[in-house]
Specification:
Blueprint lengths: L9 H137 L2 H14 L4
């Protein structure tokens, strides 16, 4: 196993060291600055991205707090609107109840007046009918009394005696 790659000779090592040195020199002269610049640029980009992410996170927290404040304010406004609506509805109901009570009182009063009017009318009609019946009865009685001339004469005398002149 005399493989030159496994056990290289002194000349191969020498030329490999010279090639390695040239490679290191070229890399140090032109490669490392570019690689280091790229790494610095990448580091700056990552830092800027992290800073931007931190700013966005802070803005999001601020927006979330602002949204919570807006939500609280909206809830307060909603509660106030509901309270006003409830008070308005209660006031409307109370006004309607008051108007209904006034209207009911007016209707009851009108009904009482109508009942009293009808009662007086009925009493007047009843008095008139009683008066008419009384006159008819008296007329029939007087006709019966005056049918006989002697009784008619006694009746007239009796009525004259009962009549008092002023």
């Amino acid at each position: 196993m005399n493989n030159p790659l496994v056990s290289p000779g002194l000349g191969v090592i020498f030329w490999m060291l010279i090639a390695f040195g040239i490679l290191v020199f070229i890399l140090m002269k032109w490669g490392w600055p570019v690689i280091l610049k790229a790494l610095d640029d990448r580091e700056k980009t990552i830092n800027e991205s992290l800073n931007a992410a931190e700013r966005v996170r802070a803005e999001m927290a601020q927006l979330q707090a602002h949204n919570e404040d807006l939500l609280k304010e909206a809830k307060v406004q909603r509660d106030e609107i509901l309270r006003n609506a409830r008070m308005t509805s209660e006031q409307i109901i109370e006004d309607a109840r008051r108007k209904a009570t006034v209207e009911a009182d007016r209707i009851v009063e009108n009904a009482r007046e109508n009942i009293n009017y009808e009662k007086l009318k009925a009493m007047t009609d009843l008095k008139n009918q009683i008066a008419n019946l009384s006159i008819e009865i008296a007329e029939k009685l007087i006709q019966g009394e005056l049918a006989d001339p002697k009784r008619a004469n006694d009746f007239v005398i009796k009525q004259i005696e009962n009549t008092h002149l002023n």
